[in-house]
Write a structure and sequence with these properties.
2 domains; disordered N terminus; three-stranded antiparallel β-sheet; Arc Repressor Mutant, subunit A; seven-stranded parallel β-sheet; globular; alpha/beta; Rossmann fold; 10 helices
């Protein structure tokens, strides 16, 4: 008769099996929620979350907002130049509506999205305004601005031409804004705004935390197409400016969260 394995050893074997299965599924799918993994494994959500913590510590995956994603999933973001030529008419119309919510005097944060760049073009002549940004293109425009333009510093993320990392976060922690204008790589009608990369999400969250009012700008192609990392639920934002046509239930959800929706027509 074969000797029985000890309970501790059996537990380790079962955990290793789950880890192999989780790695395989996440590699194939790119991104899954805790619930999807729990259903596939026949395990509890608590067990799956514990497994994800261990796998993340081993560099096998990345945990993000109620689930997990494969590290390669973050390498699919299009470059800034490509995004800058997408939906230009919509972005300009959204920027005009967003600029109307910004003061002529005070402090405004603009993040590194291409729609935020269009907002910058409309407010750089406001002499009483201080614009703080992690966007390299906005800083380049700032050489001819009447507004005061300040960069937060940090590490250059080439694909989005954004400044990110510990230096950017440290400076944001020292500043306060009347308004922060944020763009997103994806929007979910339930969860809110998301981006493709953890360091950019951290900058967006930090800016939101230092602002009195927060404006989210995003064109229709991103609506209900969330990406890897959620940086703000609907309770974070006071205004959402878009050209997307939302359903009545979606509009009601935003109203309950206290979000004022501004829908524009593309130029």
């Amino acid at each position: 008769m074969l000797p029985l394995a000890s309970p501790a050893l059996a537990g380790q074997v079962f955990a290793q099996e789950r880890h192999r299965v989780i790695e395989s599924i996440v590699r194939q799918k790119g991104r899954l929620t805790v619930g999807e993994l729990a259903l596939h494994l026949g395990a509890s959500d608590i067990t799956v979350r514990r497994d994800l913590r261990l796998l993340e510590a081993g560099g096998k995956l990345i945990r993000a907002h109620g689930g997990a994603l494969h590290p390669d999933f973050l390498d699919t973001e299009p470059g800034f130049e490509r995004k800058a030529v997408d939906a230009v008419g919509a972005k300009v119309a959204i920027a005009r509506a967003a600029a109307a919510e910004l003061p002529d005097r005070g402090h405004v944060f603009l993040d590194a999205g291409t729609t935020c760049l269009e907002v910058a073009r409309l407010i750089l002549d406001r002499r009483g305004l201080t614009i703080v940004t992690n966007s390299i293109p906005v800083l380049q425009l700032g050489t001819d601005a009447k507004a005061r333009v300040i960069g937060v510093g940090g590490e250059v993320r080439a694909v989005s031409q954004a400044l990110v990392g510990s230096v950017a976060l440290e400076w944001l922690g020292r500043l306060r804004f009347d308004v922060a204008v944020l763009s997103a790589s994806g929007i979910d009608s339930n969860d809110g705004a998301s981006t493709t990369e953890l360091s950019e999400a951290a900058v967006k969250q930090a800016a939101c935390g230092r602002a009195t009012k927060r404006v989210l700008v995003s064109h229709a192609a991103k609506w209900n197409k969330p990406v890897a990392v959620v940086f703000g639920g609907w309770d974070v934002f006071q205004f959402f400016v878009t050209d997307a046509r939302l359903t009545a239930p979606d509009k009601a959800r935003l109203r309950r969260a206290g979000v004022t929706l501004k829908v524009v027509s593309s130029l």
